[in-house]
Write a structure and sequence with these properties.
This protein has about 325 residues and is an all-alpha fold. Helices cover about 65% and strands about 0% of the residues. The longest helix is centred in the last third of the chain and has 28 residues. The chain is elongated. The termini are far apart.
Length: about 325
């Protein structure tokens, strides 16, 4: 079988779809970058160490290229040593360690302050703890004994006392200087939560709930509470005006008054007209004339001006 030509010139260009992603020196990408470059070397059937060392700089940033080209491993064309040195310089171990000790301590602090009242809540705690603690255990950040202790401390103190009572009742000779194992704690917690769940489901509302009876010492406090509550309620009601009905304009009372005034002004006007008409037919010396004149004067004192004018014109009354 004739082997085709090999060499760095056969590597895909840095902008090619088959090229590795450009490495810029991030610790969380260095491992993937080395793996991708190794796959490209295999696809291009490049086996010579010198070609491998020279080709890797095609896919790095300028700053990374300067560092690689200054390494003794690069100059010696030692691909195996160069690969390890790149992983070391760009802190590949840091990328492998996904969790820190502070992460497990945060989980413990959170769950140790809230009750795990049912199996669902308990399983959530176990799942979150295992993901972080198992990773730290595999990375040898924590030991086996620490693993069990952390798991134990993540449970609320009151619940830990109940679990401890059950465990010691089943094994009275157990060495309490050693932490309970995760398996022992989990089995006991599940039994207790199953028992609580059963008791709750078997409890009817009539028997499980009792009306709270306030103590005599608290009677004054309760009355004060209700007084404050009523005060706040009244205060809110005063601040909140009731909706008023749609107002008519002008108001009905005003319209009624206006109509009465208009009616009252029309009536005297008609009466005066009638009196003037009657007086025009009477003699001034006639007693009926005096009576009509007096009535008109009582209705409107200004009629004197009108009467004087009419008398001068000869349109009111007749002389003998």
């Amino acid at each position: 079988m004739v082997q085709g030509p090999t060499g760095p010139h056969l590597l895909p260009s840095r902008h090619s779809r088959d090229a590795p992603e450009k490495f810029k020196g991030h610790y969380y990408k260095v491992t993937d970058f080395i793996q991708q470059y190794k796959q490209v070397l295999a696809d291009c059937q490049i086996t010579d160490d010198q070609e491998k060392c020279e080709g890797i700089t095609n896919y790095c940033s300028t700053k990374v290229c300067q560092l690689i080209e200054s390494l003794d491993e690069y100059r010696a064309n030692n691909w195996s040593a160069l690969k390890k040195q790149i992983l070391k310089l760009y802190d590949a171990d840091r990328e492998q360690a996904q969790y820190q000790k502070q992460d497990i301590e945060s989980i413990i602090k959170t769950y140790s302050q809230k009750p795990l009242e049912n199996l669902t809540a308990w399983k959530h705690y176990v799942q979150e703890f295992m993901v972080i603690a198992q990773g730290l255990k595999n990375d040898k950040v924590i030991q086996e004994g620490d693993f069990d202790t952390y798991f134990w401390l993540g449970i609320l103190k009151g619940m830990r006392e109940k679990v401890e009572t059950h465990l010691l009742a089943g094994s009275p000779t157990k060495d309490i200087s050693q932490p309970f194992t995760v398996e022992e704690i989990s089995n006991t917690m599940e039994r207790l939560l199953h028992q609580y769940q059963f008791n709750w489901k078997g409890c009817s509302a009539d028997h499980c709930y009792t009306e709270p009876t306030p103590e005599s010492d608290d009677s004054s406090d309760e009355s004060d509470y209700h007084s404050r509550k009523q005060y706040r309620k009244n205060k809110v009601s005063r601040r909140t005006p009731e909706p008023s009905p749609t107002r008519e304009w002008p108001p009905r009372s005003h319209m009624k008054k206006h109509k009465e005034e208009k009616k009252s002004t029309k009536a005297p006007s008609r009466e005066i007209d009638q009196l003037i008409n009657d007086m025009s037919k009477l003699n001034i010396s006639d007693p009926a004339y005096v009576v009509a004149y007096f009535k008109a004067l009582m209705i409107n004192p200004k009629v004197t001006q009108v009467f004087d004018k009419l008398k001068k014109e000869g349109a009111l009354g007749r002389d003998n």
